[in-house]
Amino acid sequence: MSTAGTVGTPGVWDSVGTGLRLIVGWFSIVIGLLNLVVEMGDRPEAAYLLFNGMLVAGGAVLISLAAVPGRPGPAGYLAAAGVLVAGMSISTLLTSDTACCLGSLAERHGYPFAVLARDAGQGWQVDGGRLVADLMFWGYAGLLALLVVELARRLAGRGGRPRGIGGADRP
């Protein structure tokens, strides 16, 4: 039995992970761009523009991750998790005045979309779809934070010299 071609070939789970990353990345870019194009004639709310811009930026990072050599360090993962948790927590605790979502209720929480709302003396209502959208927004913000921390770490480790394609140092 020949073992030719087995060195460096990805396993099944690596391929599945890469496929899912690319699907989610391209889906995010397409949805973000379509939403922005549809709203060109109107004057959309800033939170709506920011959300769709984050979809495009986060999707672009997801599809280009294979071009980034190496793995992120603990500082990058901590930054990503910190942004995700802090963003979701703070935006859910503070009252929101966004025009979108659960507008018929007096007290709304969440950013960029209201996910938790109630009227005075009533029980809380959770909007599951908007909750997923907010998680995606803050997750992409965390991914961008991870990218910035890792870029700073790598530049600091090389004395600020950029690397060429494939990780080779430039003269």
List the topology elements.
Layout: H1 12-38, H2 46-64, H3 74-93, E1 107-109, E2 116-118, E3 125-126, H4 128-157
Antiparallel strand pairs: 1-2, 2-3
Overview of the structural elements:
This protein is mainly α. The protein has one domain (14-158). 56% of the residues lie in helices and 5% in strands. The chain is built from four helices and three strands; from the N terminus they run αααβββα. The chain has helices at 12-38, 46-64, 74-93, 128-157, and strands at residues 107-109, 116-118, 125-126. Strands 1-2-3 form a three-stranded antiparallel β-sheet. β2 (116-118) and β3 form a beta hairpin. It is globular, with a radius of gyration of 20 Å. The mean pLDDT is 81.
What is the distance, rounded to the nearest whole angstrom, between the alpha carbons of the first and last residues? 45 Å
Radius of gyration, rounded?
Answer: 20 Å
Structure annotation, total helices = 4
Mind describing the biggest β-sheet? 3 strands, antiparallel
The average pLDDT score comes to: 81
Choose one word for the global shape. globular
Low-confidence segments, ≥5 residues, pLDDT <50? Answer: none
Number of domains: 1
User: How would you write the strand order of the largest sheet?
Assistant: 1-2-3
Strand content: under 5%
Write down the secondary-structure element order. Answer: HHHEEEH
Query: What oligomeric arrangement do these chains adopt?
Result: single chain
Helix content range: 55-70%
Based on secondary structure, the structural category is mainly alpha
Number of separate strands: 3
